[in-house]
Amino acid sequence: MLTDQQDPSHYKLGIFYFNKNDKRIFPPKRNPALGWTINFANPYSIMAFVGILVVVFVLTRLLNQYAASQ
Questions:
Q1: Domain boundaries, position 40
Q2: I want to staple 6 with a disulfide (CB 3.0 to 4.6 A). Which of 2, 11, 17, 32 is the partner?
Q3: pLDDT tens across 9-61, in order?
């Protein structure tokens, strides 16, 4: 029996996990040893993903400015 993470019907284009019945923000990947994925059906997941991207972008910009001033 397949779990929700392993069921191919819960994946869009084969890689984007989309399951409205799964309330987890970061469910495990099909192979749990590979970490977690984002549940794109959960709006909080999308906000968390965008937040992580913003933090990475801001830190990269700050580090580049610091390195350029040295």
A1: 8-69
A2: 2
A3: 999 998 899 999 999 999 998 888 999 999 999 999 999 999 999 999 999 99
> 4: phi > 0 → left, psi -120 to 50 → alpha, else beta; which?
alpha
What is the reported pTM?
0.73
Residue 13 lies in a domain: yes
Select from 31, 5, 28, 30 the least CA-distant residue to 18.
Answer: 5
SS (H, E, C) the chain: CCCCCCCHHHEECCCEECCCCCCCCCCECCCHHHCECCCCCCHHHHHHHHHHHHHHHHHHHHHHHHHHHC
